[in-house]
Design brief:
The chain is mainly alpha-helical. It is 67% helix and 7% strand. It is elongated. The relative contact order is 0.11.
Length: 145
């Protein structure tokens, strides 16, 4: 008879980190078309923050301001974003998604969802239910409360 092993919380944390990291890599690889991973992340941050400043983006993306400036300039040249002075403080620049940038972000999100759906459909109905339960649990896990 095989003895069941019990994971410690540290082992579970390490396992969860590995799984989440691998899933994120697979999602990125399945969804990127004409943009880099950094640009895709920046598009999502701009959409989330709704007209952020470059400083806001540096904080959100956890990168240095010069890196934000380079990324934003490249993305502006690609027609993904537009930059404009802040209406009340002309020293500050605001960044917004263009229609092209919004379409690119929507395409990335759609491809990621399709990737996950394809994977889900390979599972048994019972495993699909367990994945739904795990997703709900992870949402609770990430709740800031």
């Amino acid at each position: 008879m095989e003895e069941a092993t019990i994971e410690t919380s540290a082992e579970t944390a390490a396992r969860l980190r590995r799984v989440v990291t691998r899933l994120n890599r697979k999602l990125r690889a399945s969804a990127l078309g004409g943009v880099s991973p950094a640009q895709a992340s920046m598009l999502a941050s701009i959409a989330k923050l709704e007209s952020p400043s470059l400083g806001d983006l540096a904080i959100e993306e956890q990168i240095q301001p010069p890196s934000v400036t380079r990324l934003v300039k490249d993305m502006q040249l690609a027609g993904l974003i537009a930059m404009s002075p802040h209406p009340e403080d002309r020293r500050s620049t605001r960044v917004t998604l263009t229609a092209t940038g919004r379409k690119e972000l929507d395409t990335i999100r759609k491809k990621k969802a399709e990737f996950i759906e394809r994977k889900l459909l390979t599972l048994s109905l019972d495993d699909q239910r367990r994945v739904r339960e795990a997703a709900a649990l992870l949402e609770k896990f990430l709740d800031p409360q």
